[in-house]
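#structure-requests
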Amino acid sequence: MKDMKDTTIVVIGGLSGIGRATAELAAAAGARVIAAGRRTPPADLPPSITTAHVDIGDDASVARLFEGIGPFDHLVLTAGPVIGSARLADLDIDDAIAAFNIKFFGQMRAARHALGNIRRGGSITLTSGLLARKAAPGALVKASMNAATEIMAKTLAKELAPLRVNVVSPGMVETGMWGEMSEADRKAMAARAGANLPVGRVGQGQDLAQAYLMLMQNGFITGSVVDVDGGGLL
């Protein structure tokens, strides 16, 4: 891992899960990190990480965030909705629209408002998910918004060049995105899911964080989707 001293990183979704792991790994590498999200900052977040409030579903909230931050080098977006699986016949369209407003349009509006702040040589890294390219009944909304995110990144990589734009696509990762459940139920679910993967386990936040840092540090990668899924697409 390269030294990231003198680099400023903004992680939206950085107060929990994959985003928090990325913020902590970047801070450990020497970066100045601003972790932003809707929730209350966790008490055990490293004190070197600055926190900020933002709701990426609200355009004014996103605009205020970047107005207050100033210039920075890399934007990482990991925020996303917790949404269940529903087949088309049972789908609540309003729930689907709300999910798109966070996962797809939220990342779009954050990238748009950040443009004037990102220094030359910087990057934007979006987050999609394995279901973008692995069809599964009941996953219509998740698949559609993740697939839309991936083509958005490829389009922006050309439109915003030389600013680099990439995507990390997680597979099954043990985070709060699984929804509310007991620790025992979470571990049991992780064990069942991991048993079906080539690597024999589900992912952890640190597994994903390494991919985000690689995309920030490697100046020759743009328009790419990096799968970190334990072989889930195989």
